[in-house]
Design goal:
The chain is an alpha+beta fold. It is built from six helices and eight strands. An eight-stranded mixed sheet has the order 1-2-3-4-8-7-6-5, with helices on both faces. Helix 2 runs antiparallel to helix 6.
């Protein structure tokens, strides 16, 4: 009888643990894993990540969309979705990571933004990738395109002794990644390099 009660108790604990982990929607997510490895903290409110993205404050952190409605909004606001794009481009989850110390205005300071949009299907992901890649083409000269390890990418780099900015868009299955960094002086790109290594992406800094 005691053994049966113990088994039931353990099963209940495991169920609660699973529900707690699943509710965050980030268990085993490669982007979240990369953010944690880099030392970023999870942010609880979308306004916190928005403040870092502007930036109105310096800091480092990541945010995971609460639901699909918020994921769609974040894809439009930060993920490169064209406002006139078809409504069938639906996002299941959106993860946004930011590392910023640009407000210090010191040489080497920068704001790095990295996003991951998980779409409903590969066709939607392709449409989002094409829209985001088109945005890079409009804003940068000398875009480099290619494919490596099954990941399609468009990357660019523009910099001198005073400042630098670089960007990348990547398509992997039903997932689209975006990288954008703006820095002062000779920014080391440590955040970008760390995420690219963990996610298997070609870094825009290869063009430096």
């Amino acid at each position: 009888m005691k053994t049966k009660l113990l088994s039931m108790a353990m099963a209940a604990i495991m169920a609660v643990t699973c529900l707690a982990g699943c509710s965050a929607g980030s268990a085993g997510d490669p982007m979240v894993d990369a953010a944690k490895k880099y030392g970023m903290k999870e942010l609880g409110e979308i306004k916190e990540i928005t403040n870092l993205s502007i930036p109105t404050e310096d800091g480092s952190g990541y945010y995971v969309s609460k639901d699909e409605k918020e994921a769609d909004y974040m894809t439009l606001a930060f993920g490169g979705k064209d406002p006139g794009a078809a409504d069938d481009i639906k996002t299941e989850k959106f993860v946004m990571c930011i590392d910023s110390n640009l407000l210090s205005r010191e040489p080497g300071s920068a704001t790095t933004t990295i996003t991951q949009a998980t779409l409903k299907d590969e066709d939607s992901a392709k449409k989002l990738y094409e829209a985001a890649a088109s945005n890079i083409n409009d804003r940068f000269d000398g875009v480099t395109k290619g494919e490596e390890n099954g990941i399609t990418y468009s990357i660019t780099y523009d910099g001198d002794d005073a400042s630098q900015r670089f960007s990348g868009v990547y398509l992997k299955g039903n997932t689209v990644y975006r990288i954008y960094c703006m820095g002062l002086g000779d920014h080391d790109g440590k955040c970008t390099e760390s995420f690219c290594k963990d996610l298997g992406l070609v870094s825009p800094l290869t063009l430096k």
